[in-house]
Write the structure tokens for this entry.
Amino acid sequence: MPPVEPMLAKLVRELPAGKFYEPKWDGFRAIVFRDGDEVVIGSRNGRPLARYFPELVDAALLNLPRRCVVDGEIVAESFWALQQRLHPAASRVQRLAGETPAVFYAFDLLALGETDYTPRPFHERRAALEGALAAAAPPIHLTPITRDERQARAWFDELAGTDGLIAKDGEQPYRPGERVMRKFKHHKTADCVVAGYRVHASDPQLVGSLLLGLYDDGSAPVRWADAFGGLVPIGVVGSFPMARRRELLAELAPLVVDAADHPWARAEPETVGGPGSRWSPGKSLSFIPLRPERVLEIRYGQVDGGRLRYPAQFVRWRPDRDPSSCSTAQLAR
């Protein structure tokens, strides 16, 4: 019965050998529950998604066994298109369902009829899933799978709509909420300007995250051009050891400037963020402005609308780089 936490994956730098390999789809993780005429779609956090994807509810009734629980990914033409579907107005959801319909890639079976498949090894679950979806038609798809590492690497390089690979142990049972799979993701690097920082939620004497900026070379969204003095916000770096967070506070202190002298002086506070900030409605939007003189190299994954979807990883400081040479063209590579 819903909600059920999905089994998760741990990020790895090298593709593990001897596994089952699947494309890592770039969408919304979802577990679909069907019981007769009732369909529930649960998000990764257990929140209901069915109202936002009525076309998938209809497809589940047509294509899934009458009683089953299936794990998979909701995918659309872009991640941005998926985000637009999470809207309170049913009329807009219905319109977007027609304009940018979603598909569902099924990749695991948790239950079928009266049988709980979660204790069974993955290779048995996959075989049962293939049988259960043998007659399924779009927009319900069975995700491709291979044990050939060369084929997996070809998917990694060429398959559209993905952001990497998932590696699964064929003997592994389904373990909700645990990071027992492995994910091998596309990563790129960029040199960014440190434009400010936010203090840590637990201690104002610690740096919580560094705000990153790039100079607009014409590739940034037009609406950003003036509001940010040419230095557009692209996201944050936020993962540092606690001791390093304290060191950063002292290290960056000489660069602190009055807000009126910062390139973002005319921007609204809530616009200085984006997906990489992981804001919630109750989160403080304030930040400490810095003179844009320091450059760091980051490792990042996806970009939406010119901003990092997730917080980036710190790689190294780049004292050899001129901040003015750090342009938005890097995110278009």
Observations:
- The chain is about 20% helix and 35% strand.
- The helical segments are 54-63, 79-85, 90-99, 122-132, 149-158, 242-252.
